[in-house]
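The protein record filed here.
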Amino acid sequence: MNEKRIKGEETKKKIIEVGENLFSEIGYDATSVQDICDKAEISKGAFFHHFPTKEFLFLEILNEYLFKLDNQMNEIEKKSKNTLKAMEKMVDILEEIFVTSKGKFTIFLEFLRKSSKDSEIMEKLSNQFQKYQKYVFFMIEKGKKEGSIKEDIDSEFISQLIISLAVGMILKKSLFLSDEKENFSKKGIEFILESIKKEKKI
C-alpha cells in the first residue's frame, strides 16, 4: 500500500515537471494532455487520476511556484542581519527569478498571459501581489522598530512603490526591454531602500 502511494507521488511529480517544461517551451494552449502523457511516459488514466483537467495541473504548478518563492523570501528574512538587509537581498532574488532564470520566467509569463482569460488565475496572482505588498509594508514597519529604517517614512506608500517597480521589472522583461545597459526598475528599488535607510549616529 505504501509502495503504491510512493509510486503515485512520483508519477504526480513527473507530470508537474513535464507540464512545467512544456508550458514554458511551447505555451499552455499548444500543450495537450496527450503531449504531457507522451513526454512523462504515462497513460491518460494516470494523468486524470492526479489532475481532472490540464488547467488543474497549471494551477498546481502556479501554487508550487508561489510556495517556493514565499519560502525563499522567508529564508532571506531569517538569515539577514536586519530588515533592510533582507529587503536588499530580496531584490536580487526577484532579479534572479524573473530576469536571469529564463525557464522560470517563461512559465511566469504563461501565468500572466493565462490570467487575462481565467478569473481564478487572475485572482490568485492579484492576491499574491497584494500579499507581497503587505509583506513589504510589515517589513518596513519592523525595520522602523529595530532602527534600520527611518521612522518618519510612509510605509504604505513605499511598499506600494517597491511592488510597482518589481512588477515593472517583470513587464520590461516581457516586452524584451531587459537587454538595456541598466535595469532601472532594480536600480529604482535600490534607490528607495537607500533613501529610507536610517543613518547610524557616530
Observations:
- The mean pLDDT is 82.
- The chain has two domains: 1-52, 62-196.
